[in-house]
Amino acid sequence: MAVSTPNGPVAEFCAALRELQRASGLSRTTLARQLSYGRSQLYEILDGRIKRPPEWDKLVEPLVRACVTGGDRVVVERSVAEWKQRHEVLVRVCEELHRHGVREAGTGGGVLAPRSAAEDLLAHSRRLWPRLSDHPFVRAVSRGELTDAAFRRWMVNDHYFNVEYQRFLAGLAGCAPTAAATEAIAVGIPATFLGLDQVRQTAARFHIELDAEPGPTTVGLAAFLQAQVSRGYEPALAALYATERVYFDAWSGIRGEANRATPYWHLVEHWSSEPYGHWITSLGRMVDVAAPAGATPEMCRAFDRAVRFELLFWRAILDGESW
Question: Is pLDDT above 60 for 119?
Answer without folding.
Answer: yes
